[in-house]
C-alpha cells in the first residue's frame, strides 16, 4: 500500500465516527453543551473541519474552502482565515450556532480537498521542512500526520459528546 493511500484511508476514517455521531441530531442538540464549560457537538465538528481546512490549504498553497467556497456564509460567520476555533473562550463556544447538516457537509468538503492534496504530494514535498519556530522544524509529512491525528481525536470527542447528550448507548464498541 502506498503512503498516500494509507493517509487518505486515515482521513476518511473521520466519518466512521462523525456520521453516526451526527445522525438524527437536531440543531438544538448540536448546540447543546453537555456542561456549561464544555464544547458543543456542532462546535467540535466545525473546529475539526476549520483546523484541517486551514492547515491543508496552507500546505497546498491554496485558499481555504471556508472562504473560497463561502462556507463562512452558511455558518453566519466572517470569512476570517485565522478563525479556526483554536483558543476560543467558552463564551465564543457558547455563542457558536451550528447550521445543522452544514457542519458535516463542510467537513466532507474539507476531507475531499485534503485527499486531493495528498494525491499530489511527492517524496520531496513530504520531506520539505516548514518555516516555523518549532524545533526541530516539522516536515510536510509530519504535519499531514499531525492534522490527521487532531481530526481523529476531535471526531472521537464528537462521538462522546453525542453520547453525553443522547445517552443512547451508541458507543458500544
TrEMBL record:
Gene3D superfamilies in the record: dinb family like domain (1.20.120.450)
Domain DinB-like positions: 16-147
A Pfam family it matches: DinB_2
Superkingdom classification of source: Bacteria
InterPro entries the UniProt entry points to: DinB-like, DinB/YfiT-like
UniProt-recorded name of the protein: DinB-like domain-containing protein
Organism of provenance: Dehalogenimonas formicexedens
Amino acid at each position: 500500500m502506498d503512503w498516500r493511500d494509507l493517509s487518505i484511508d486515515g482521513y476518511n476514517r473521520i466519518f466512521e465516527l462523525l456520521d453516526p455521531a451526527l445522525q438524527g441530531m437536531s440543531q438544538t442538540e448540536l448546540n447543546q453543551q453537555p456542561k456549561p464549560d464544555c464544547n458543543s457537538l456542532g462546535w467540535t465538528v466545525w473546529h475539526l473541519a476549520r483546523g484541517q481546512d486551514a492547515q491543508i490549504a496552507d500546505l497546498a498553497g491554496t485558499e481555504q474552502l471556508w472562504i473560497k467556497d463561502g462556507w463562512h456564509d452558511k455558518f453566519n460567520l466572517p470569512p476570517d482565515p485565522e478563525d479556526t476555533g483554536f483558543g476560543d473562550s467558552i463564551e465564543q463556544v457558547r455563542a457558536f450556532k451550528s447550521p445543522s447538516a452544514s457542519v458535516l457537509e463542510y467537513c466532507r468538503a474539507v476531507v475531499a480537498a485534503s485527499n486531493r492534496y495528498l494525491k499530489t504530494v511527492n517524496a520531496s514535498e513530504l520531506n520539505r521542512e516548514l518555516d516555523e519556530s518549532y524545533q526541530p522544524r516539522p516536515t510536510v509529512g509530519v504535519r499531514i500526520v499531525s492534522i490527521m491525528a487532531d481530526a481523529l481525536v476531535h471526531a472521537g470527542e464528537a462521538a462522546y459528546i453525542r453520547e453525553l447528550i443522547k445517552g443512547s448507548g451508541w458507543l458500544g464498541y
